[in-house]
Description:
Blueprint: H1 19-32, H2 40-44, H3 50-61, H4 72-85, H5 89-94, H6 101-118, H7 135-143, H8 152-156, H9 164-179, H10 181-201, H11 225-249, E1 251-253, E2 259-261, E3 274-277, H12 280-283, H13 323-333, E4 335-338
Antiparallel strand pairs: 1-2, 3-4
Helix pairs in contact: 7-9, 9-10, 10-11
The structure holds a DNA duplex.
Amino acid sequence: MGRSPCCDKNGLKKGPWTTEEDNILINYIQMHGPGNWRALPKNAGLERCGKSCRLRWTNYLRPDIKRGRFSFEEEETIIQLHSLMGNKWSAIAARLPGRTDNEIKNYWNTHIRKRLLRNGIDPVTHAPRLDLLDLSSLLSSALCNIPSTLNVSNLLGTQPLLNPQMLSIVNTLSTLRRENPEMFLQYLQQINLLCNSQMQTQVPISQPNQNPLQNNQVCTTSSDPCTSFFNQTQVMQSNFEGFLSNMTNISCLNSQGNLIPSSMAENFPSQPNHMFTGLPESSSLQSLNNGNQNFGFDSVMSTPLSSPTHLNSSSTYINSSTEDERESYCSSLLKFEIPESLDINDFM
DNA sequence: AACTTTTACAACCGCATCATT
DNA sequence: AAATGATGCGGTTGTAAAAGT
């Protein structure tokens, strides 16, 4: 079925509304109430499209609209609702009295979305972007004082950054270092031997600083450099699998396939993934760097402890807070699902 | 001070859905 | 049931103001 345009566009004014137009619209609606938008411009004497009038009223002129900065509570609500509903701005707006869907949408796109991205959070899924983590740093920090001959970057080589097995190994090594230093040293020796022997016999490794995200190139022929790189990747994959196999000899897998030391297996009951909240009291993410300059969590998550104070729902300082403070607080609101195998405490 | 770039947000557009005839 | 109208919604654009050079 064909649809006629909502209004005759010929001769109708567009663009920003003038104060005079606003007054005409307000006066008219005060007298007749909102609604019947198509007829409204003509009846009110406005050279505007009815749709434009409705938008101007609902998004700007309505007396119950709250203007000014979003409060911490509002921001928190938006983020939480968005994680549940997605871009259902009108539904989100319904939960925020005085705020319009348009305003929330704009605020999301210009503030919250960017902030989440800066903090390593995917604004669509609300999940931490672990692909931004530097696993090399993770492993280095876990090993801490490893022999200088063990090149962690080489070990990681071309592995995808978000490799659950590697995360498991990081956790395993961290746990071992804490629980069984003797065994930890034996591990290191094995790793070292394994790495040295395999690195000597295989093709050169990719540059440690190579951005793994750039590796996802499309290969179109079998003779291009990309293919060569891919072959190296396969070699590294076999190295890595061999490494994993060696590791597994003295480890076992938990119910979810995560690698844990056999001596500690009984301490890992089957349980759902931890819902990790970065609230100040519960996590102290800031201490991740304690005694460890390598670890790079700070680069992807701001520190909840740096927020001005714990949230006080009745506080009034909110509107005068800085963007940084909001950013800090914002990240503390987000819940991260951390793989069971990766114990954040191990990196503190 | 002048110019350029970035940011913030009001407004527009097209489509979907619901209501009415 | 089909056609049409009214309204709502979400993505996108335009532009003024602010920030940077």
